[in-house]
């Protein structure tokens, strides 16, 4: 198994970035829905703290992943794909990154503007309360999460479509 990417396959570093992020998202998304349903209390505070930590880990992983991606080639898409498929794949990945950043930043701003302190691992941040703006960022956080769910669904659907219709196992590049 190669450490770095080749033109035909992802290396172990890219695979780890992909699957760790995927696993964390599979925990984060349901935790967010669960969090919304909770009344204020000890359980909500505990779940929210884990949710924030998970979100920050995903954020940092995504930043490191993009930095790594700059210095390491992405495997080429199959040449048999028509240009529209390549464009959809590129846009889906781009919007996945944008959604992850939007979710994390809006969640952090919602928390900070709501009068809470945010621990970003290296320091604690607290800013002046602005509850109206906190609600705006909360709405952005929610809509960006729904967008992320759609993008992840499209991402998984593409893998299934390639396997069933095009008889290509594109999943093997990232597993």
Account of the protein in words:
Strands 1-2 form a two-stranded antiparallel sheet. The longest helix is centred in the C-terminal third of the chain and has 34 residues, at 131-164. With 175 residues, the protein is mainly alpha-helical. The protein has 4 helices and 2 strands, in the order H-H-H-E-E-H. It is elongated, with a radius of gyration of 18 Å. Strand 1 and strand 2 (124-125) form a beta hairpin. Helix 1 runs antiparallel to helix 2 (42-71) and helix 2 packs across helix 3 (83-113). It has helices spanning 12-37, 42-71, 83-113, 131-164, and strands spanning 118-119, 124-125. 69% of the residues lie in helices and 2% in strands.
How is the secondary structure organized here?
Elements: H1 12-37, H2 42-71, H3 83-113, E1 118-119, E2 124-125, H4 131-164
Antiparallel strand pairs: 1-2
Supply database-style keywords.
single chain, 175 residues, mainly alpha, two-stranded antiparallel sheet, 4 helices, 2 strands, elongated
**Total of DSSP H or I helical runs spanning 4+ residues:** 4
Spatial sequence of strands, sheet with the most strands: 1-2
Q: What is the percentage of strand-forming residues?
A: under 5%
Tally of strands: 2
- Runs in which pLDDT lies below 50 for 5 or more consecutive residues are none
Structural class: mainly alpha
Helix content: 55-70%
Distance between the termini: 11 Å
Give the helices and strands as they follow along the chain. HHHEEH
How would you sum up this structure in a few lines?
By secondary structure, the chain is mainly alpha-helical. Helices cover 69% and strands 2% of the residues.
């Amino acid at each position: 198994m190669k450490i770095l990417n080749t033109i035909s396959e992802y290396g172990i570093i890219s695979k780890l970035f992909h699957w760790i992020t995927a696993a964390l998202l599979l925990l984060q998304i349901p935790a967010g829905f669960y969090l919304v349903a909770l009344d204020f209390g000890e359980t909500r505070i505990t779940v929210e703290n884990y949710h924030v930590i998970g979100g920050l880990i995903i954020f940092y992983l995504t930043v490191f992943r993009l930095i790594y991606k700059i210095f390491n080639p992405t495997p080429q898409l199959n040449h048999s794909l028509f240009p529209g498929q390549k464009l959809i794949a590129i846009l889906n990945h781009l919007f996945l990154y944008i959604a992850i950043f939007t979710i994390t930043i809006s969640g952090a701003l919602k928390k900070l503007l709501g009068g809470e302190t945010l621990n970003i691992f290296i320091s604690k941040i607290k800013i002046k309360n602005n509850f109206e703006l906190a609600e705006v960022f909360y709405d952005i956080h929610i809509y960006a999460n729904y967008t992320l769910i759609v993008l992840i669904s499209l991402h998984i659907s593409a893998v299934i479509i390639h396997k069933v219709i095009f008889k290509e196992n594109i999943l093997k590049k990232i597993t």
